[in-house]
């Protein structure tokens, strides 16, 4: 009898002696095998799933209505313990499912052992993870909505500020600072749309699939889906228990979102170096040696997080690629990258929102990076408007740039006579080309950097953010 007790204690109540196992588990194996240390985050989802399942097995007559009420009431008490922080995890609580079932049975007695009839931890964990992921995704959409609103309002407030646009990190054409900011918000809007598209695929109910072959007691899976707020049920029980596509999709999505945030952070780091913007003290740190330093650490960390999340996405995909069909314990490794990715995304969105909300623009310094050579395309466009083919005007404008360089002057200081030496079709009104504001306003097509075009982008972004 003593050996049976030892085995029961070593394996917990679920796999106690007298069943399949005779001996206890190696303590190192217990630690290696357990997931309660991290999947306890799904305590609420697990209890919700169990309440729904208790109702479902009442419907098919596996337990009486009275027993169903006892289970639901007991699960409510377990939920209260988790909510108020008094739930005690004990030795043998391998995962959140066994912990909740163990505590339920302590509260309601032997009837607690009926809850798991026809159910497997395979469909149980798949259900919990889907519920948790959908809730996290919807919460993240709200965070994105806040980020987009703060960013778009910042863009609207600074819509008159001009600066340099770059390609290859070389001055290219003048743009509005708000146009630059809206370019990054446009990418995040696509991210939000992609996340919205992920949710319906994730929000399908696997409960009632059993270990792999389905439920032997005919539980109403559509009832379970409705009780838990799913959009529908999974179509194949074997696939339902091992499908982690929704986790990989979220991890890949997270990597792309953070890539976009990283790109914005890099631009701000460069602009901060040029003194075009000032990062608020709340998002900067100092040096342990150099008193003058103010480092944009928040932006650097935003830049760094993208690579870490991308690694998690590739790591889990590599885990999945060699698995035989149906549930394998390898799938337990989906939780930590999922939970960490959600936490990282939420933290990064909060930090990025704070950085933008407190950012200070230095309009004079932003204007300093403008240079007349950036208007060389406008010079070419000037002749286009006079009927000259663009390929010819491109060559002519390039010759003017070279002339200015040879004379060691800026292109806007070339006289009309000097321009006419390059091409006689230049007229006196060509001197109006050297106006940054006019250049920006000529880019008035949809999505352009003209004021009205940028304002339209801002308005559309604010409207979309309200839907999240």
Question: Can you characterise this structure?
Answer:
With 468 residues, the chain is mainly α. 61% of the residues lie in helices and 4% in strands. It is built from 19 helices and six strands. The strands form three sheets. The chain has a two-stranded antiparallel sheet with strand order 1-2. Helix 4 crosses helix 7, helix 4 (43-59) runs antiparallel to helix 9 (221-228) and helix 7 (121-157) runs antiparallel to helix 19 (451-465). The two termini are 60 Å apart. The relative contact order is 0.10. Mean pLDDT is 94; it is low at 1-11.
Could you give the topology of this structure?
Blueprint: H1 2-11, H2 27-33, H3 36-39, H4 43-59, H5 65-84, H6 96-108, H7 121-157, E1 162-167, E2 170-176, H8 177-202, E3 204-205, H9 221-228, E4 232-233, H10 237-242, H11 245-273, E5 277-278, H12 297-321, H13 335-358, E6 360-361, H14 363-368, H15 376-384, H16 390-406, H17 416-422, H18 436-442, H19 451-465
Parallel strand pairs: 3-4
Antiparallel strand pairs: 1-2, 5-6
Number of helices: 19
Low-confidence runs: 1-11
The radius of gyration is 31 Å
Strand order of the largest sheet: 1-2
Would you tell me the structural class of the helices and strands? mainly alpha
Total beta-strand segments: 6
Ends distance: 60 Å
User: Given the C-alpha coordinates, what overall shape results?
Assistant: elongated
Summarize the main sheet.
2 strands, antiparallel
Percentage beta strand: under 5%
What distinguishing features does this structure have?
6 strands, 61% helix, 19 helices, 468 residues, mainly alpha, two-stranded parallel sheet
């Amino acid at each position: 009898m003593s050996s049976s007790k030892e085995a029961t204690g070593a394996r917990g109540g679920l796999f106690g002696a007298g069943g399949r196992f005779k001996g206890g588990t190696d303590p190192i194996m217990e630690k290696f095998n357990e997931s309660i240390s991290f999947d306890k985050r799904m305590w609420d989802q697990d209890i919700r799933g169990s309440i729904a399942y208790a109702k479902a097995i009442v419907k098919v007559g596996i337990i009486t209505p009275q027993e169903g009420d006892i289970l639901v009431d007991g699960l409510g008490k377990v939920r209260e313990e988790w909510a108020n922080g008094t739930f005690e995890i004990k030795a043998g609580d391998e995962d959140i499912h066994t912990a909740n079932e163990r505590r339920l049975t302590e509260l309601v007695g032997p009837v607690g052992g009926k809850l798991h009839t026809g159910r497997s931890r395979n469909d149980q964990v798949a259900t919990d993870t889907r519920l948790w992921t959908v809730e996290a995704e919807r919460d993240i959409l709200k965070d994105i909505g806040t980020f987009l609103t703060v960013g778009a309002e910042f863009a609207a407030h600074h819509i008159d500020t001009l600066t340099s646009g770059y390609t290859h990190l070389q001055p290219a054409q003048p743009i509005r600072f708000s146009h630059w900011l809206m370019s990054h918000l446009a990418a995040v809007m696509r991210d939000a749309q992609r996340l919205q598209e992920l949710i319906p695929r994730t929000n399908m109910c696997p409960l009632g699939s059993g270990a792999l072959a389905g439920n032997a007691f005919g539980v109403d899976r559509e009832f379970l889906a409705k009780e838990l707020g799913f959009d529908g049920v999974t179509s194949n029980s074997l696939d339902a228990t091992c499908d982690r596509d929704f986790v990989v999709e979220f991890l890949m999505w997270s990597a792309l979102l953070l890539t976009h945030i990283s790109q914005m952070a890099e631009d701000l780091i460069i602009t901060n170096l040029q003194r075009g913007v000032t990062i608020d003290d709340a998002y900067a740190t100092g040096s342990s040696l150099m008193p003058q330093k103010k480092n944009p650490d928040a932006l650097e960390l935003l830049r760094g997080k993208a690579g870490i999340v991308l690694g998690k996405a590739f790591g889990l995909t590599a885990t999945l690629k060699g698995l035989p069909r149906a549930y394998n314990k390898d799938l337990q490794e989906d939780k930590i990258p999922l939970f960490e990715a959600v936490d990282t995304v939420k933290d990064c969105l909060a930090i990025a929102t704070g950085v933008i909300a407190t950012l200070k623009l230095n309009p004079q310094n932003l204007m300093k990076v403008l240079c007349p050579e950036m208007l060389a395309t406008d010079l070419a466009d000037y002749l286009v408007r006079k009927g000259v083919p663009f390929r010819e005007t491109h060559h002519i404008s390039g010759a003017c740039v070279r002339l200015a360089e040879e004379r060691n002057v800026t292109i806007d200081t070339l006289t009309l006579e000097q321009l006419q030496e390059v091409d006689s079709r230049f007229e006196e009104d060509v001197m109006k080309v050297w106006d940054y504001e006019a250049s920006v306003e000529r880019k008035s097509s949809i999505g352009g950097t003209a004021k009205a075009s940028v304002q339209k982008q801002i308005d559309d972004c604010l409207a979309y953010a309200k839907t999240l």
